[in-house]
Amino acid sequence: MAAPDAAGTRRALVRASHHVAPARVPRDLRRMETSQSDVIVIGAGMAGATTAAHLAPTHKVALLEAEESAGYHATGRSAAIWILNYGGADARILTGASRRFFEAPPEGFGELAHQRAVLFIAPPEQAGHLEAMIAAGEGLVPIPLAEVRDMVPALREGYAVSAAIERDAFDIDVASLHQGFLRQVKQGGGVLALRHRAGRIWFANGRWHAESSGGTVHSAPALVNAAGAWGDEVARIAGVRPIGLQPKRRTACIVDPGPYDSKDWPLIGDADHSWYVRPEARRKLMVSPADETDSEPTDAQPDEYDVAVAVDRMQQALSIEVTRIEHRWAGLRSFTPDRGLAIGPCEAPGFFWMCGQGGYGIQTAPAAGRLLASLVRGATPDEDVARAIPLTDPRRFHA
Ligand SMILES: Cc1cc2nc3c(=O)[nH]c(=O)nc-3n(C[C@H](O)[C@H](O)[C@H](O)COP(=O)(O)OP(=O)(O)OC[C@H]3O[C@@H](n4cnc5c(N)ncnc54)[C@H](O)[C@@H]3O)c2cc1C
After folding, report:
1. Which residues line ligand 1 (CB under 6 A)?
2. Residue 8's pLDDT band (cuts 50, 70, 90)
3. 232 contacts 244 by C-beta, under 8 angstroms
């Protein structure tokens, strides 16, 4: 890997040929407090946190977050699972390249991975799909239904005709991962500015400027858009072409599995991905209808209908009586038009995308942050993540 440094970033910017129309410089600029850094990262969810952490050893980072808690949106609402056989080729490359980080994290992260198999079960009409998944997958193998029943005694007789299991998947300790990245940012001399929504963003004199709701203007030669569901909004504010992000709401709820001790159950879902359950603790199950309802960027709230659908689909497969929903929530998974991630530069000099994480933003985070940090530095990315570049380059949306 080439020597990474902030000067590399500046050289990469000088090489950028296509200029954006400069956004209007605010007239009241002289009265504002300004803060200079090497890179501004907008959004301190998992995408912004991993990017900032990977840049912190070489760059002075200003990490701006609109909310008063950094994981308030999608990052704090995930199912927290690492599955290799999930998503498109780019997600699988970055998920695989993140594995080592989860299994042997750097000091200060604690234990991040807790083994949990993932079980796909197929009713008759989904059997073909399951076969195709096994053929295309890696480490996804058929498992006899008798073995599934031993593992999950609640499985209803007659629901599934076949099943497959990915044994070396795992639960991710999302809070430890996220906090670990944020700690690395601070240890590297970076700043995490909570309650700082970037409301005005402009490019002038070779630098990006972001005026945050805290009243400060942050200025740096590079800016990373890691604003999750608000990614296109941030681009528009900055005078950069949006990429067509679509936030989609996903619902989850917690139920009691009744007489069953579900602690060691695998994550269970159907092959068509129309519902799944994930053990939360000894006597808790998270249930989701795997919904994808188009939404505006917002503080997503669960819809009662989606909660009912989740329970109904789960009950078709598992004999679990649900007398009470203990907790319910929803979060936004944001997708690009081709559902691939958007990681890298665009036609605007010094403007980098770190968006479109969809349903894989946690499991891909270590490798995605490493990849984008190399691109911001103007360094050659490691081989394992470089393979994803043709699939994740945001410029594909404007070709
Ligand atoms: C129910 C559910 C289950 C999921 N399960 C999994 C799973 O098992 N595994 C997995 O890998 N992924 C999963 N995901 C997906 C994962 O949660 C997301 O991909 C990931 O959290 C996205 O991170 P992010 O940082 O891009 O977005 P967010 O966490 O939403 O962060 C974006 C941040 O940007 C901030 N922001 C926006 N605009 C501005 C601005 N102008 N100025 C400053 N800050 C701004 C927001 O306040 C927000 O905090 C799941 C998601 C949901 C909803």
Report:
1. 42-48, 64-67, 72-75, 77-81, 197-198, 226-230, 234, 250, 252, 331, 333, 357-363
2. low
3. yes
